[in-house]
UniProtKB/TrEMBL annotation:
Its main location: membrane. SMART domains: B561. PROSITE patterns: CYTOCHROME_B561. Its EC number is 7.2.1.3. Homodimer. Residues 1-163 form the Cytochrome b561 domain. This is Plasma membrane ascorbate-dependent reductase CYBRD1. The gene is Cybrd1. It comes from Pedionomus torquatus.
C-alpha cells in the first residue's frame, strides 16, 4: 500500500509524463490506486484469518484501529475519485470544489498509512523478540528501526513532491490536450476558412471559440493537481 499509493500520488508530478495525454495519466492514476486498494483488502483478510486461526483477538491495538480507518477512508477516496474525476458526468464546478479536498485527503491517507506501518513493525518487534528482548537492541531490532526511519524519509519526500508548485503538471500542456479537436491556438479551423461568411457569423464563431477555451481552462484547473 505504501509503495503503490505513493506511485499513484506522484504520477502527475513526473516531468517525463507531462507530454502524455491527461486522460491516459488519469487512467494510470486510477489503476494504481485500484491495485493498492485490492492489495490492502487482501492483506486485511489475511490478518483476520491469521488471528482467528491462532485465537488472537481482533482490533484491539491502535495499529489495527488506525489501519482499518485508513482503508475505509481510502475506499471512499477511490470511489469518489472515480465518480467525480474519472467519469465524465460530474459538472466542472463540482470538480473544482472537490479537488482541494481530494488532494489533501489523499495526502492525509498516505501519511496515515505510513504511521500505521511504523506502529505495525514496532508492535511485531515487541511481540516477537523475547531472547534477546527488543530493549536489548539485537540486530533484528536495529534493522527494523532503520527500516522505520527509511519509511519516514520516504513519506516526507513523497509529501514534499506532492506539495511543490513547480512539480505540478504544466497547465499549457493540459490546455493542448483539452482543446477541442480541430481547434488551433489562434482559433478553429472552421473560423480560419470562413472567407465568404457574413460578419455576424464570424463574430458568433469567435464567441463560441472563446467560450470553448474558457471551458478548457476550467477543466484544466479542476484536473491538473489530482493525486487521488
Amino acid at each position: 500500500l505504501v509503495s503503490v499509493l505513493s506511485s499513484a500520488i506522484i504520477v502527475y508530478r513526473l516531468p517525463w509524463t507531462w507530454k502524455c495525454s491527461k486522460l491516459l495519466m488519469k487512467f494510470i492514476h486510477a489503476g494504481l490506486n485500484t491495485i493498492a486498494m485490492i492489495l490492502a483488502i487482501v492483506s486485511m483478510v489475511a490478518v483476520f484469518e491469521f488471528h482467528n486461526a491462532r485465537n488472537i483477538p481482533n482490533m484491539y491495538s491502535l495499529h489495527s484501529w488506525i489501519g482499518l480507518t485508513a482503508v475505509i477512508f481510502y475506499s471512499l477516496q477511490l470511489f469518489l475519485g472515480f465518480a467525480v474525476f474519472l467519469l465524465p458526468f460530474a459538472p466542472v464546478p463540482l470538480r473544482a470544489a472537490l479537488m482541494p479536498i481530494h488532494v489533501y485527503s489523499g495526502l492525509t491517507i498516505f501519511a496515515t498509512v505510513i504511521a500505521t506501518a511504523l506502529m505495525g513493525i514496532t508492535e511485531k518487534l515487541i511481540f516477537s523478540l523475547k531472547t534477546p528482548a527488543y530493549s536489548a537492541s539485537p540486530p533484528e531490532a536495529t534493522f527494523v528501526n532503520c527500516l522505520g526511519l527509511l519509511l519516514v524519509i520516504f513519506g516526507v519526500l513523497i509529501l514534499w513532491m506532492a506539495s511543490r508548485s513547480h512539480w505540478k503538471r504544466p497547465p499549457e500542456e493540459n490546455a493542448k490536450v483539452l482543446r477541442p479537436i480541430g481547434e488551433t491556438p489562434e482559433g478553429t479551423e472552421a473560423e480560419s476558412t470562413m472567407t465568404d461568411g457574413s460578419n455576424a457569423d464570424r463574430s458568433d464563431l469567435r464567441i463560441n471559440s472563446e467560450a470553448a477555451r474558457k471551458q478548457n481552462l476550467k477543466l484544466d484547473e479542476a484536473g491538473q493537481r489530482s493525486t487521488m
